[in-house]
């Protein structure tokens, strides 16, 4: 394998694009779970940025940070989906535009 | 511009794949297909992570993110039988304004990138054989300097487990 | 990388995959004749002597049958699902070493597809991906039985994955590395001159948990409720016919072979024979044959158990995975940690 370089600009461009796509998805989707997926995408874009800088600065702390982020995302996904399930049981819909009352 | 090496080409290909499938995820109206597009996107990202000499994180990404979190999403979608989204848009103009603003911010970000030319995210020369030292070294860091965070993480996961169960369990009749 | 490098890499990677695909008819035949033997009946004996051509007849049948895709299904997912199952089954073999390093023309070539630094983790990653093949098959069939079968099977796989990885964590702790070549290297030699240094001896609990978990991971009896005919028609592969069903069928056997190979590598010394030092090409051939023989034995045990034990009910299955196997695997991990700290394990 050729020990070559990946220009940091490439990495940042990719992660920036992923972040914006996730942001657009979080803003424009109506399905609560799709919004959640877009947020996960944004987190991955952040992971990519951290790893890009970690590789560029030859520092392993970046990998540790990303490891923790992934594990925390798992915890958050579990609780978030539990919330959606509980919500769905009460309101029969996960369209965020229709869930607009604090009390029903 | 750095040289067009094999590593860079593969990284670009993986990143493009990730971006394409992320777009598919955002555009597709059926939630199950969105999740699957995201799985492919995450898989492509893990290839990118390997090229950034983070093989441990690449494996963790596939095992945890693509292989557990998204499976959880998939199960919930299948069990709730979530329907396709209707075709017309979100209906609130503020969303479109905000999305346009986001893309504008991205463009500004891109311009600032041009000033960081020369920085390379190259893997260390000795890491071309699979980066064996990286895995052990990263693991050592995790268990020495960050041990408290690691243990706190396990408590967090336990709390999330209990919380998720408490939220999602069916209501019992008293 | 020169052309020779590419050629060598290609041979290293493709040799085991091709070997598996070529050997596949043997477990298929063995299953049916073995079933006959255990159930005191002849088994297939019409096609060729001792029914040896039965797999060929099966293959011809699979190719000639009508390929049905049910209505109102998602065609793309329906077609991809068996592909995902087979893909993840076959690519698992890339990190399992099937022989010692052989020196050819001044080059040292380890006999493994890809000696990555995250060997075992790569395997777990692929197991996680295989869940998608099954769950998608169940969902895209647009059929309640398939959906329930698919979801049950998916839940079963991810539950037993935990016990399996915790049991394997004991091996990783003892070996100090994720690479499977290191795990095998650590198991060469003997204790006291006659007990082989296999991981099964100090980590017997780990082996037991791991082996039971592989039965659940490959959806084999006694854990095959998701595809049990009496319960769910065919589970997630009800609606699949002809070649797509053949792909699931092949994926199941490949999974069996890979699971056996993995058990052998982690707990029974892989290609190493305890009283034998491999030298040169002869040594490589003997070691590869040893690996093959050990794997074949465990494949036979898969078949043997299938026709001997009754099936677990689904709640019993989940209870076993979470409440029995996982705590035992953790106990094993504690035990291995104790051994490593006392330096009784390397």
Order of helices and strands of chain A: HHH
Number of helices of chain B: 6
Element order, helices and strands of chain B? HHHHHH
Q: State the largest interface.
A: A-B, 74 and 93 residues
- The CATH topology label of the largest domain in chain B is Four Helix Bundle (Hemerythrin (Met), subunit A)
The best one-word shape of chain A is elongated
Q: How would a textbook summarize the main sheet of chain A? A: none
Q: What is the chains' assembly state?
A: heterotrimer
**What is the CATH class designation of chain A?**
Mainly Alpha
- Architecture (CATH level 2) name of chain A: Orthogonal Bundle
- CATH homologous superfamily caption of the largest domain in chain B: NADH-ubiquinone/plastoquinone oxidoreductase chain 6, subunit NuoJ
Proportion of residues in β-strands of chain A: under 5%
The poorly predicted ranges of chain A are none
Overview of the molecule:
The complex is a heterotrimer of chains A (104), B (174) and C (346). Chain A is mainly α and 104 residues long. Chain A has a single domain (9-91), classed as Helix Hairpins (Orthogonal Bundle), CATH 1.10.287.3510. Chain A has 3 helices and no strands. In chain A, α1 packs antiparallel against α2 (32-56) and α2 packs antiparallel against α3 (61-91). Chain A is elongated and about 50 Å long. The N and C termini of chain A lie far apart (61 Å). Chain B has 6 helices and no strands. Chain B has helices at 6-27, 31-51, 55-80, 93-113, 132-144, 147-168. Chain B folds into 2 domains: 1-86, Four Helix Bundle (Hemerythrin (Met), subunit A) (Up-down Bundle); 131-174. In chain B, α1 runs antiparallel to α2 and α2 packs antiparallel against α3. Chain B is globular, with a radius of gyration of 21 Å. With 174 residues, chain B is an all-alpha fold. Chain C has helices at 3-23, 25-38, 54-64, 75-91, 119-140, 144-175, 180-186, 204-217, 229-232, 242-267, 280-306, 314-341, and strands at 99-104, 107-111, 190-191, 195-196. The mean pLDDT of chain C is 84. Chain C is built from 12 helices and 4 strands; from the N terminus they run ααααββαααββααααα. At the A-B interface, α1, α2 and α3 of A face α1, α2, α3, α4 and α5 of B.
């Amino acid at each position: 394998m050729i020990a070559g370089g990946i220009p940091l600009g490439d990495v940042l461009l990719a992660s920036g694009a992923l972040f914006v796509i996730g942001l657009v998805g979080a803003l424009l989707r109506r399905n609560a779970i799709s919004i959640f997926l877009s947020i996960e995408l944004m987190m991955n874009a952040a992971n990519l940025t951290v790893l890009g800088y970690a590789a560029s600065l030859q520092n392993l702390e970046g990998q540790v940070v990303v490891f923790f982020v992934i594990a925390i995302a798992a915890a958050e996904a579990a609780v978030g989906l539990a919330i959606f399930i509980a919500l769905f049981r009460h309101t029969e819909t996960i369209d965020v535009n229709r869930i607009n009352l604090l009390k029903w | 511009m750095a040289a067009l090496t094999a590593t860079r080409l593969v990284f670009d290909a993986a990143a493009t794949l990730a971006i394409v499938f992320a777009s598919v995820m955002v555009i597709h109206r059926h939630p199950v297909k969105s999740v699957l597009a995201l799985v492919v996107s995450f898989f492509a990202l893990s290839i990118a992570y390997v090229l950034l000499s983070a093989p441990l994180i690449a494996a963790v990404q596939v095992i945890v993110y693509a292989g557990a979190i998204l499976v959880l999403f998939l199960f919930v979608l299948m069990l709730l039988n979530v329907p396709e989204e209707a075709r017309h848009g979100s209906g609130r103009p503020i969303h479109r304004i905000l999305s346009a603003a986001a893309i504008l911010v991205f463009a500004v970000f891109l311009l600032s990138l041009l000033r960081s030319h020369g920085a390379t995210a190259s893997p260390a020369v000795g890491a071309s054989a699979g980066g064996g030292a990286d895995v052990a070294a990263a693991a050592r860091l995790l268990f020495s300097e960050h041990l408290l965070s690691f243990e706190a993480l396990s408590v967090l996961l336990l709390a999330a487990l209990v919380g998720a169960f408490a939220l999602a369990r069916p209501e019992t009749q008293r | 990388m020169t052309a020779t490098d590419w050629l060598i890499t290609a041979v290293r990677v493709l040799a085991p995959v091709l070997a598996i695909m070529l050997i596949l008819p043997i477990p298929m035949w063995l299953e049916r004749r073995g079933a006959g033997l255990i159930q005191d009946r002849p088994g297939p004996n019409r096609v060729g002597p001792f029914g040896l051509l039965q797999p060929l007849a099966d293959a011809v049948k699979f190719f000639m049958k009508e390929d049905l895709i049910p209505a109102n299904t998602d065609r793309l997912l329906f077609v991809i699902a068996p592909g995902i199952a087979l893909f993840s089954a076959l690519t698992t073999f890339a990190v399992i070493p099937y022989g010692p390093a052989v020196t050819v023309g001044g080059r040292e070539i380890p006999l493994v597809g890809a000696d990555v630094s995250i060997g075992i983790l790569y395997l777990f990653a692929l197991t996680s991906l295989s869940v998608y093949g099954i769950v998608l098959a169940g969902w895209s069939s647009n059929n309640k039985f398939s959906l329930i079968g698919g979801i049950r099977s998916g839940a079963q796989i991810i539950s037993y994955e935990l016990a399996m990885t915790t049991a394997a964590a004991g091996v990783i702790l003892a070996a100090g590395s994720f690479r499977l070549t290191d795990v095998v290297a650590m198991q060469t030699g003997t204790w006291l001159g006659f007990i082989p240094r296999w991981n099964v001896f100090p980590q017997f609990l780990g082996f037991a948990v791991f082996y039971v978990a592989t039965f659940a991971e490959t959806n084999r009896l006694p854990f095959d409720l998701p595809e049990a005919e009496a319960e769910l028609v065919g589970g997630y592969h009800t609606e699949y016919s002809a070649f797509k069903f053949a792909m699931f069928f092949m994926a199941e056997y490949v999974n069996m072979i890979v699971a056996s190979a993995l058990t052998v590598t982690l707990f029974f010394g892989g290609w190493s024979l305890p009283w034998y030092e491999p030298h040169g090409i002869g040594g490589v051939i003997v070691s590869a044959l040893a690996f093959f023989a050990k794997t074949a034995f465990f494949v036979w045990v898969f078949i043997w158990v299938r026709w001997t034990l009754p099936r677990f009910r689904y709640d019993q299955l989940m209870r076993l995975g979470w409440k029995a196997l996982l705590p035992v695997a953790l106990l094993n991990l504690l035990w291995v940690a104790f051994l490593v700290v006392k330096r009784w394990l390397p």
